[in-house]
Amino acid sequence: MDVVHEACAGLDVHKRTVVACVLRSGPGGTVVQQVETFGTMTRDLEALAAWLAAEGCTDVAMEATGAYWKPVSNVLEASEGFTLLVANAEHLRAVPGRKTDVKDAAWLAELLRHGLLRASFIPDRQQRERRELTRYRTALIRERAAEVNRLQQTLEAANIKLAAVLTDVTGVSGQRILAALTEGKTDPEQLADLAHWRLQKKRDALEQAVVGKLEGALRFVVQRQLEHLRDLDRLIEQCDAEVAERLRPFAAELARLRTIPGLGPRTAEVILAEVGPDLARFATAGHLAAWAGMCPGNRASGGKRYPARARKGSPWLRAALAEAAWAASHCKQGYLPAQFRRLAARRGKKRAIVAVGHSILVIVYHLLTRGTTFEDLGGLYFDERHPDRVRAAAVRRIEALGYQVQLTPKAS
Question: At what angle do helices 315-329 and 335-347 cross, to 10 degrees?
Answer without folding.
Answer: 100
